[in-house]
Amino acid sequence: MEQDFLPLKGTDHVEFYVGNAKQSAHYYQHTFGFQLIAYSGPETGVRSMASYVLQQGKVRLVLTSSLIPNSEISDHVKSHGDGVKVLALWVDDVEKSYRETISRGAVSVMEPQVLKDEHGQVKVSSIKTYGDTIHKFIERSNYHGPFLPGFIIMKPQFPVTPVGIQYVDHCVGNVGLGEMDKWVKFYQDVMGFRLLLTFDDKDISTEYSALMSKVVVNGNSYIKFPINEPAPGKKKSQIEEYIEYYGGPGVQHIALATDDILKTVSELRSRGVDFLSIPDVYYDGLKDRVGTIEEDLPALKDLNILVDRDDEGYLLQIFTKPVQDRPTVFYEIIQRKGAKSFGKGNFKALFEAIEREQALRGNL
After folding, report:
1. Class assignment of domain 10-153?
2. β-strand 224-231 against 134-139: which pairing, if any?
3. Strand, helix or coil for residue 342
4. pTM confidence score
5. Which residues 6+ apart lie within 8 Å of 170 measured at CB?
6. Closest of 34, 64, 37 to residue 271, by C-alpha
7. Backbone dihedral angles phi then psi of residue 319, each to the nearest 5 degrees
């Protein structure tokens, strides 16, 4: 078996560049139940930006805003709105990770650096991926602070109750027409990922629009990246709408895992999170399609949760509406009961639900 030249321990964090990090942090605390754990900004000696670090389970979100009009961060927000800038990967050896990927054709963003404070040291480097998105490699075995050097411990100003989110299941990227295979090849050749699944326009289509998707996964399967591109259709696909409003390729959605989706979604709904709605007809014959499941069907129907089965088990999933005004980034809540797949049996129902939202926006 070929040795994994880029062993990854998991998703270290996901960083968003946003227009107002303070208010975004409040949203994620109140609605998604993330705990505020760290902060960096003027009070810590950083004059040009502010960052809030939020955590729930193994998921860390970093929300960063520019404090000056002309910066990489403000330019990113101007072009893309609130969006994902960094998909950070946790590694044992930053220098090796950087060297191996650069030698295979990665474009450098930052050479390996050592960041230090009284809590120890963290090594960081980064490379480009699709659009303006980057991958950071983070080596933190010699660090015991709240997040990274330069951040101070920050406690929430109000009580925060988690909703049961445990870890990042996968992150989905949208790229332009004809670019999917290029980026799949990037992950295979540059980062040593393997192709896990392929979905074509026969799998993911409606009367009006279609997309194609391939899923790449790293050696230990901790990191999974589906890559989508639009396919020709009668009308504008959700991928085209995303790219138009985001201003290019980027992260479409982040799937967050839970071990009790009914409880998690009920709590999110009660806090004002908007989810895509699924017609009642989807649940007619659901048991015939997916077989025996442990969950109560009326409860799933009431919450609009989708179910799909593969050879290894089944999964339950639901998708939020976009979490900012631009119809770009959204979230998936997923619970796996053995299934390793991504809900192929739900693609049509999901696509139609997204198209209904597109039609309301006048973008179909």
Report:
1. alpha beta
2. unpaired
3. coil
4. 0.94
5. 215, 224, 225, 226, 254, 255, 342
6. 34
7. -125, 135
**In the chain, what are the domain boundaries?**
10-153, 167-361
Question: In 3-state terms, what secondary structure has residue 267?
Answer: helix
CB neighbours of residue 276 within 10 Å:
18
List the pLDDT tens digit at each of the 364 positions of the chain.
Answer: 467 999 999 999 999 999 999 999 999 999 999 999 999 999 999 999 999 999 999 999 999 999 999 999 999 999 999 999 999 999 999 999 999 999 999 999 999 999 999 999 999 999 999 999 999 999 999 999 999 999 999 988 899 999 999 999 999 999 999 999 999 999 999 999 999 888 766 666 666 667 788 999 999 999 999 999 988 776 678 899 999 999 999 999 999 999 999 999 999 999 999 999 988 888 888 888 899 999 999 999 999 999 999 999 999 999 999 999 999 999 999 999 999 988 777 766 766 777 788 888 887 6
Q: How far apart are CA 297 and CA 301, in angstroms?
A: 6
Measuring CA to CA, which residue among 122, 117, 118, 120 is closest to residue 139?
122
Q: Do domains 10-153 and 167-361 have the same CATH topology?
A: yes
308 within 8 A of 317, measured Cβ to Cβ:
yes
The CATH class given to the 167-361 domain equals alpha beta
